[in-house]
Structure formats: C-alpha cells, structure tokens
Amino acid sequence: MASNTTLSNARILVVDDEPDLRTLYELTLLREGYRVETAGNLAEALQHLGERRFDVVITDMRLPDGLGLELIQQLRAQQRPERCVVITAYGSAENAVESLKTGAFDYLTKPVDLKQFRSVIASAVQDPAPRPTAVGRAGSPLPESSDAVLQRLVGESDSMRRVKERIVKVARSMAPVLVHGESGTGKELVARAIHANSHRTGSAWVAVNCSAIPESLLEAEFFGSKKGAYTGSTQDRVGFFQAASGGTLFLDEIGDLPLSMQSKLLRAIQERCIRPIGSSQEEPVDVRIISATHKDLSLEVLAGRFRQDLYYRLDVIEIEIAPLRERREDLPALCQTLLRRIAFEAGIPVPTLSKAGLEQLSQDPLPGNVRELENLLQRAVALSDGDELQLELTARQPLTQDASFLDSGPTPLDDDQTTIPSDLQSHLDTQERDILIQALRETGFNRTAAAARLGLSQRQMGYRIARLNIVTPHSGELSDESL
Ligand SMILES: Nc1ncnc2c1ncn2[C@@H]1O[C@H](COP(=O)(O)OP(=O)(O)OP(=O)(O)O)[C@@H](O)[C@H]1O
C-alpha cells in the first residue's frame, strides 16, 4: 500500500482498449490505494474527464478511435491539471519523445514492468510543491526552495526571462532537458533550478562532469559495480544512476562522452534499467536526466562524434542560454549579486563598482561569461586597496570564434594541413597541448583566464592540463623551458 494517505487518495483514469491490460493496471493501482476509473477508448475517456478532475491519466498510445497523444493535446489546450502517462509500443522511441514534447509527464514502454509502472505513477501523483518533511540524501544537499534557486539566477534580459519561464514550465515533467550555452553561462545553475522546481526536489541531485572521467572508468561510475567485478573491488559500488534514484541526474559536458559510453547511456535511458559491472541482474532506475553542453550537438552528430539516437533522446526539451555579451543589460545586476556573494564570503563590506568600471566590463567580450565575470570581480576585490574596485581586464582580440573552434576545424597552428597524420590521436594531442600552452602563456599562466579564453570550464582545463602532462610554473616543478 502507498504509505502516504494524501497520495493514495489520488484519482486515476486508465485508458486502454485491451480489457486484460486495463484490469491489470486497475488492480495494481487499487492495491496501491488509488481511486481508479477506466475507459476503453478516447470518447469514453473524454466523457470521464468531462465529469470530474483526475490527478493522473494513464493512456495507451493506440486507441480504437484515435491516439493517446490527442488526449494529451486536448487536456493541454484546456489547461487541465491532469498529468498524463503514455504507454507506447516497444521500440517506438518517436512516440515516447513525441508524447513528452506534447506535454506528457512520462511514458512507459510495453510490456509494462509493474514495478516501474508503480514508481512512475507514484511520481506522477506526488504533490508538485516541495514536501516540507523531505530531506536530502547522504551526499546530496538539503533541498533548496524552488524560488530560492530561481532567484539565484540573476538577469532580467528577455533571454534570461525566457529561460526562467521555461524552467518553471518543464520542471514538472519527466522529459529530458538539454541545456545549451557557452562555458560559464550558468548551465548547471539552470539544471539545478529545474530540479528544485520539480517534485523530485526532496530526492537526490547528482551532477556528473562527463569530460572529467577517464573513459575506462565511465561504465563503473555510471552504473556501479559488484564486489569482485575487477581486481581490487572489495565491495559493491553504487553508480551515478543508483545514487540519483528518484531524483535528477545532471550530465554536464555530455558532448564529451565517448561513443562507446553513449550507446550504454542510450540503453539505460531507453530501457530504464542498468546492469552494474559484474552483475547478472538488471536493475530498474528512476531518474530524470538533464544534460548540458557548450557544443552544437547536431554538428557533433554530423561529424560522427555523437549518436543521433542519443541526441534525439536527450534533446526532448532544449533550453538555450545566451552568452553574456548578448545580454549586457544583465551585467549591473550580476555584478551586484556577485560582489555581494564575494564580500559575504570574505567577511568584508560590499565594494562598489564605478560606472566607468561597469562601462569597461560592458565593452569586454567576456568569453568565459558569468564565471569569468565572477573571477574578475574576485581578483579586483582581492587587489583593491580603496573603496572603488580596479578591474584588470585581459588584453585580447575581440572574440570572433566560439569555443567549438577547437573541435570543428583546422586551427592557425595547423601548418601542414595536407599531410594526414599516421597517429591521429597523438597529432591532435600535440595540437591541443600547443594551444593550451599558448593560452596559458598569454594569460600569465592564469588557468582561469586561459580556460575562459578557450571557452573551457576550470574543471575541463584542469583535466586537459593533467591529461596532456603540462607543467605550469605555478606547480613549482619546472620552468617555462619545460613547456
Ligand atoms: N544568471 C546567473 N546569475 C547568477 N550567477 C550565475 C548566473 N549564471 C552563472 N552564474 C554563476 O557563474 C558560475 C558558472 O555557472 P555554471 O557552473 O552554472 O556555468 P556552466 O555553464 O555550467 O559552466 P561550464 O560549462 O563551464 O560547466 C557559477 O558560480 C554560477 O553560480
């Protein structure tokens, strides 16, 4: 029986033309304590809906007099509050994605696994408002109020307002969201706001930086492993999917996931099951996936670096965050918030930024976006000796290319583009190393500034520096000559 009486009072409409299945769903739901009504086709369903309000409508996709999708469309058009769960035929990914795009809360694939069925319905009937008694799990922060997280997202430009509206709109469904924007634009903050505004807010939030995990460890990190699965594994290990169970899994830098892992992720999303390494058992998983990238994934698909089917699965709802240089009207509010945060952490009075300083900032391309702005202000606060902040903007060329230039074509360092390298990986590594070193030199070995110039996050920069074995003067081991 469902443990929460308010949830078990929920009223559910089941729409399916197969009497056996209808009865199976009905009995399963009645056993959970829900109030259930059934319909065998669209017309009957609409009749029930005309008579009363339901909490959840579960509908088969194919009905004798139309599609389950039409039911969702009608409910949305009438702005009805019912959450819809669609049951689609096995292998019809298009239908599942289409129903999520139309506004379904979630979908289930035939043959329906009853455990999964119960868990999806339990999610759908939950009160969307954050539950006051909910507590964060070990390893996940206590849930923040939905408003508090949205308010942390500073900016009232048209594009920021659209982002915030979209967050609220999509938060309540299970549909995967892809957040796209340059490095430092606030993709993780947006993903967190979606989680905080969803009914999953009391459950785990697990953020994973796909570019920071070595390829050989990815499968174990994502799906976990059983004791003895490999040398040295002395106990079962929980993967990201299990850790995020009931909550949200945020896959940052999804464009950097190697192809081999992309197919495993696709399978986990499609089947909603994972198999830990060393286990013979599949485990059902209930996670909402939000992914983020600074890359244009459609170009990555064309270049053969990203699986089209996975792209299609992840990009059900897209949220685009504009770079800071395209929403300069957000700069004053952002500076104010960031300065307040910096001053609070340093335990000092909030410094002021002069009009001239703000003007200076608004002329700067700020390729590292809000993160770069944050670092810049942090440096200014640390170096200031008076009330007014002195900004140190790095002299640089106006930004003419976005960060994806590293991946999408020859760079000026390609002096011999006609020769095909015999070892592509080491050729690319050498080029990447040269670019990184050049950026580090030109920024006085300031990793943050170099990362910002290259459109990389600090984590990505750190990972690349380690991978390519670059020793910077700050590491105190070798001098400039070693570069
Ligand atoms: N609109 C905003 N209002 C307030 N702070 C912001 C905003 N956007 C970004 N930030 C701050 O800027 C920093 C970078 O944000 P975040 O990590 O979310 O960016 P990102 O796009 O995920 O970066 P990356 O792609 O490099 O991982 C964080 O400290 C975040 O709090």
TrEMBL record:
<dbReference type="InterPro" id="IPR058031">
    <property type="entry name" value="AAA_lid_NorR"/>
</dbReference>
<protein>
    <submittedName>
        <fullName>Two component, sigma54 specific, transcriptional regulator, Fis family</fullName>
    </submittedName>
</protein>
<dbReference type="InterPro" id="IPR002078">
    <property type="entry name" value="Sigma_54_int"/>
</dbReference>
<dbReference type="InterPro" id="IPR002197">
    <property type="entry name" value="HTH_Fis"/>
</dbReference>
<dbReference type="GO" id="GO:0043565">
    <property type="term" value="F:sequence-specific DNA binding"/>
</dbReference>
<dbReference type="GO" id="GO:0000160">
    <property type="term" value="P:phosphorelay signal transduction system"/>
</dbReference>
<keyword id="KW-0804">Transcription</keyword>
<feature type="domain" description="Sigma-54 factor interaction">
    <location>
        <begin position="153"/>
        <end position="382"/>
    </location>
</feature>
<dbReference type="Pfam" id="PF02954">
    <property type="entry name" value="HTH_8"/>
</dbReference>
<dbReference type="InterPro" id="IPR009057">
    <property type="entry name" value="Homeodomain-like_sf"/>
</dbReference>
<dbReference type="InterPro" id="IPR025943">
    <property type="entry name" value="Sigma_54_int_dom_ATP-bd_2"/>
</dbReference>
<dbReference type="Pfam" id="PF25601">
    <property type="entry name" value="AAA_lid_14"/>
</dbReference>
<dbReference type="GO" id="GO:0005524">
    <property type="term" value="F:ATP binding"/>
</dbReference>
<dbReference type="Pfam" id="PF00072">
    <property type="entry name" value="Response_reg"/>
</dbReference>
<dbReference type="InterPro" id="IPR027417">
    <property type="entry name" value="P-loop_NTPase"/>
</dbReference>
<dbReference type="InterPro" id="IPR001789">
    <property type="entry name" value="Sig_transdc_resp-reg_receiver"/>
</dbReference>
<dbReference type="InterPro" id="IPR011006">
    <property type="entry name" value="CheY-like_superfamily"/>
</dbReference>
<dbReference type="GO" id="GO:0006355">
    <property type="term" value="P:regulation of DNA-templated transcription"/>
</dbReference>
<dbReference type="InterPro" id="IPR003593">
    <property type="entry name" value="AAA+_ATPase"/>
</dbReference>
<keyword id="KW-0547">Nucleotide-binding</keyword>
<keyword id="KW-0067">ATP-binding</keyword>
<keyword id="KW-0597">Phosphoprotein</keyword>
<feature type="modified residue" description="4-aspartylphosphate">
    <location>
        <position position="60"/>
    </location>
</feature>
<dbReference type="InterPro" id="IPR025662">
    <property type="entry name" value="Sigma_54_int_dom_ATP-bd_1"/>
</dbReference>
<dbReference type="Pfam" id="PF00158">
    <property type="entry name" value="Sigma54_activat"/>
</dbReference>
<feature type="domain" description="Response regulatory">
    <location>
        <begin position="11"/>
        <end position="125"/>
    </location>
</feature>
<keyword id="KW-0805">Transcription regulation</keyword>
